[in-house]
Amino acid sequence: MRTLAGLTKFVLFVFHTIFCSLVHLLISGFIRLFKGNQVKWNRNLVRFWAFGITVIFNIKIDKKGSAPVPPFILVSNHLSYIDIIPVFLHTKGTFVAKREVRNWPLIGFMIEMVGIIFVDRRIKKDLLRVNDELKPACNEHQGIVFFPEGTTSAGEKVLHFKPSLLEMAATEGMEVSYASIQYRTHPKDEPAVNSVCFFGARDSFPGHLLKMGKNREIYCTIRFGEERIQSNTRKDLAKQLQKRVESIFIPTHIGRK
């Protein structure tokens, strides 16, 4: 029975994502033709997509604290590809994502269309390029969100924050906001660490999506820190931000409701 539920949610995810992608392709041409606000349109579409995903997978989101307003830079711990859902629904921001996400079925194509900035952390020149792109992308219409751990985890602890993408914030003297994300599942479901967190090489993206779809409910808590952190060196900024995220972080393994 849960396998059928997972398959149903998987199919709905595919159709919902394709629908949003087609709408974007159709409307974006008109936005450019009539010189509309492309950033605002992208944000509204991706919020619609994100809301649809919460309905399909029965994701209940509890927001704690105040989300930053544009322009902002926001960092968070990273547990799964669905981390973008609570962030998109509660902030006006776009993401910096690792290059591999671009190749994910469906979701990679869509998020590339709506202005996600991709980075290959293995190539130093690419990090320089992305830091140059962050300044114009962080404006009165949107902020920038990224995960300085550089990878996803099981949510047992906050991994080491890599400072490379904080170069622009340090150089420009910008204050950086922070948040933490935690997942729990229904008592009769697999714990979130096994069915929501997406880390290592245990599952393919479609396989994990199917597994996640078997859950009856997913509970997500996103906590926004109230402080804004500033430093003129990226390493110090990364160190301070990691401590702040750790202070509001709750391990996922505590995890069932």
Task: Tell me about the largest β-sheet.
Answer: 7 strands, mixed
How many domain units?
A: 1
- Structure summary, number of beta strands: 7
Q: Spans with pLDDT under 50 lasting ≥5 residues? A: none
The share of residues in helices is 40-55%
Beta-strand content: 15-25%
Distance separating the two termini: 22 Å
Radius of gyration: 18 Å
Q: Count of helices?
A: 9
The chain-level structural class is: alpha/beta
> Could you say what the CATH topology is called?
Glycerol-3-phosphate (1)-acyltransferase
- For the record, the CATH architecture stands as 3-Layer(aba) Sandwich
Seen as an oligomer or otherwise, the chain set is: single chain
User: From N to C, what is the helix and strand string?
Assistant: HHEEHEHEHEHEHHEH
Give the CATH class: Alpha Beta
Give the overall form: globular
Describe the structure.
By secondary structure, this protein is of the alpha/beta class. The chain has one domain: Glycerol-3-phosphate (1)-acyltransferase, CATH 3.40.1130. The chain has a seven-stranded mixed β-sheet, with helices on both faces. β3, α4 and β4 form a beta-alpha-beta unit. α1 runs parallel beside α4, α1 crosses α8 and α2 crosses α3. The longest helix has 32 residues. The model has no long low-confidence stretch (mean pLDDT 90).
